[in-house]
Amino acid sequence: MNFHHKNQVPSLIQQFSMTHFTRWCSLVLVAFSLTGCATSPAPLRTVPRVDLNRYLGNWYVIANIPYVLENGKVASYDTYSMRPDGRMNNVFTFRKGSFDAPEKSWHGVAWVVNRESNAEWRVRFLWPLYSTYLVLELDPDYRWAVVATPGHKLLWVLARTRHLDDATYAEILKRIAAQGYDPNRVAKVPQPAEL
User: Fold this and answer.
1) pTM higher than 0.85, yes or no?
2) Which of 39, 40, 141, 159 has a CA between 20 and 30 Å from the CA of residue 33?
């Protein structure tokens, strides 16, 4: 693109809000880090089978390995719903910094890439970038789950309710330690008693 007048550049930058620019840059940087070819200490083992119909609905974020896009977000949860094309809508809802903050959402799409297990997905919030989503642990009654990205970089503990009892949470930490994670890297995400 050629600019014939030096005043054109600042006016174009002003048209693109800095808030949107910062958000877009953050998404791009994280997406590139998630789709990189980092090696893991040991291959991650997914669950043998996920029943997608049972998996749909709300999953509250109980804990995660902190990273830039979710830092400061509270009362967060994912909602999955099936689309007519066989993919899933993936809506990430959160409040920033406080339970009193307004609720916001990011809208993405998810699709299964391992049809034998339904435990390996791709998730995209910003085209054309995507991340790999692995279901590592899943309660038989679909009350809680552990999902991660390859390479032991990111991990989320999810539940159907906003809180897990201490014994269940401790058992989940033991399970992820057996998969090569350091439980000390996992931090609880603040969830209100109710909203």
Assistant:
1) no
2) 159
